Amino acid sequence: MPENRGMPHAVSRLRAERLERSAKPFLARGGFKRERCAQCRLLPSHCMCALRPLLTTRAGVCLIMADIEPLKPTNTGWLVADVVPDTFAFGWKRTEVDPALLALLGDPQWQPHVVFPGQYVAPERVVHTVQSPPQGAGAGPGKRPLFVLLDATWTEARKMFRRSPYLDAFPVLSLETEQMSQYRLRRSGRDDHFCTSEVAALCMDLAGEHLAGQALQAYLAVFTHHYLQAKNQQPVDWQSAGHQRLREVCGGAGGASHPGNATLPIGPMHASSIAMDGLD
């Protein structure tokens, strides 16, 4: 069942844990310095908590996050946790591994896939597809796909990949797409670098979770609109293309509403050239 919309999800909990360990307040570069909603990280006047989709998915996402990623207001791993109910989040450390992460990776219900460019690993580890669930009478449930995403800058992600030997036993999913990134909240010099929620959307599509993939794309567009409107001290356009798309996608899936509106009815040009969220 989908997680309660009012309950803190995995990235929110990881952020709280990281803040408890901070010796001084985290100050994000750029953006706005005013009070933020604890649930969506936006100004209360631009809050989008009521727009959070309520979906169910067979596939899950495991975010292994660089140290300050959970603190960044532009981090889109947070959006993944909003949309995909079975999203898990762990902080990455070079010298130790969270036992809960190892337990998750070893859980027999899951088939982990490490999402990373295939050119950085031995060819025999690289896959480009995800096995479909078994079909027909008497077919067992099969393992559920678990997409392991390294949520970090591209430089950090390469280091994390090299220094995480506990990931070596799993196939590496190398994504391929002709689309360009639509992420506009951090700087990047390349259009083939995708943010975390865009990568998760591609993974969901591969797993046959097309509704979740479309919801992630639309939800990112809405978050981007709310964030930039708040930054520029402009009101939210509730009829923007992103809002309309989110209504179309999630209207029949337990989608949300907002106050004043009805219920919401990698090589070149390849996503395998992933640089996760940290583009600034």
SSE order and pairing:
Elements: H1 10-20, E1 60-65, H2 77-83, E2 87-91, H3 99-105, E3 110-115, E4 126-127, E5 144-151, H4 154-162, E6 172-173, H5 196-206, H6 210-231, H7 241-250
Parallel strand pairs: 1-2, 1-5, 3-5, 3-6, 4-6
Helix pairs in contact: 5-6, 6-7
Structural overview:
This protein has a domain at 48-119 and 143-209 and 266-280. A six-stranded parallel β-sheet has the order 2-1-5-3-6-4, sandwiched between helices. 28% of the residues lie in helices and 10% in strands. With 280 residues, the protein is an alpha/beta fold. It has seven helices and six strands; from the N terminus they run H-E-H-E-H-E-E-E-H-E-H-H-H.
Question: What is the rounded Rg?
Answer: 18 Å
Helix count, per DSSP? 7
What's the end-to-end separation, in Å?
36 Å
Q: Element order, helices and strands?
A: HEHEHEEEHEHHH
Given as residue ranges, the uncertain stretches (5+ residues, pLDDT < 50) are 256-280
Structural class: alpha/beta
Q: What is the average per-residue confidence, as pLDDT, rounded to a whole number?
A: 81
Shape descriptor: globular
Care to count the β-strands? Answer: 6
**Helical content (DSSP H or I, runs of 4+):** 25-40%
Beta-strand residue fraction: 5-15%
How do the strands line up in the largest sheet? 2-1-5-3-6-4
What does the largest sheet look like?
6 strands, parallel
In short:
This protein has helices spanning 10-20, 77-83, 99-105, 154-162, 196-206, 210-231, 241-250, and strands spanning 60-65, 87-91, 110-115, 126-127, 144-151, 172-173.
